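$ run holo --ligand "magnesium ion" --emit tokens
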Amino acid sequence: MSHATLTVDEARARLLAAATPLAETETLAADLALGRVLARPLVAAVTVPPLDNSAMDGYALRLADAADGAWLPIGQRIPAGHPGGALKAGDAARIFTGAPVPEGADTVVMQEDCETDGDRVRVVRPAKAGANIRRAGEDIRAGQAVLAAGQRLTPARLGVAASVGATELAVYRRLRVAVFFTGDEIVMPGQALAPGRIYNSNRASLRGLLGQLGCEIVDLGQVPDRLDATLAVLEQAAAAADVVITSGGVSVGEEDHVKAALERLGRIDMWQVAMKPGKPLVYGRVGAADFLGLPGNPVSAYVVFCLFARPFLLARMGAEVGPVKAYTVPAGFDWPKPGKRREYLRARYEDGRALLYPSQSSGVLTSLAWADGLVDIAAGATVKAGDPVAFLPMTELLA
Ligand code: AMP
Ligand code: MG
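-- output --
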């Protein structure tokens, strides 16, 4: 077992290198595919929009015919969904947003720039040739790959898939993740809190984090701090899932049995990651499953999940994993004392600057509930209010 101290970037790179995308894919109704990862590129069967169409309610005409405020007869009416005939020489067509532009028309003039008199119309404000026409294919051309394999199906991407008429999508199957929670002190909400006990908060947070990733969760509950019990649940977890994630029990105390169980049943790599909160990060294999051991401390577990487990799971799910998105924003705080490790501070972006939660203790879980991002501060750095800092929005870390 190695205890190498790695940088955040090294640990992330090692985990990503170890993550093999799922082999199994399935075909799914597009309506059920939100959050899934596309396994094959989606090639457009149709051109979007299929025809030149009007971007406005107005009049389709040949702009040259409308010069000098000439009155034009309104030869036809073209609502959306009802293609008209070709535009007769010298005519205008009444047209509505989304309706096909008739052959021969080169411009749509919006109705606000026209004046009508019975069945004739004239243009009363300068119009630009070609204006207000959405061109056929300006969004998508038939045969074009509109979505790439490895993309997660967001609402916008499902919209694009629908716009080319897709009803089914080739996606990776759901990743199965087994979880269990160590610690003789933890009890489930709903149970009596005996002296020395605390409620299991990691279960609620971790289930939420995994749920947002679209993982199938196999919840094996709480495990007492005993080697035999840990061995039994670890074996069960590995048989049931693609990835096993645990909280707690990975420190070096004699009440920490996860490492020993993992060494007995599989293999283990343990790293110290030079960061705060966090530090111990366990990666290993048990049978065919990957193993990730999160710290027990709820703030550390959460942050370690976001920075390491999440990209690992995404890669396992077949998704492309980009670098962590950070925005440079002015600090709304002073950070006068340089830290020994890289720190991820619970922060909120407000009034154009990053504010810190008053307590950055890793025992204070309310800091995470308050935060909408993390400020990433390098080891040894100090910050004065107004200095640029890296802000990692939670929306990026949780999506
Ligand atoms: P450990 O890593 O097992 O030494 O746990 C570190 C700290 O996290 C201890 O204070 C534990 O009581 C706490 N802890 C461990 N698991 C949980 C959990 N599921 N919910 C809340 N706190 C926990
Ligand atoms: Mg423990």
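-- notes --
The domain at 327-397 is CATH 2.40.340.10 (Beta-clip).
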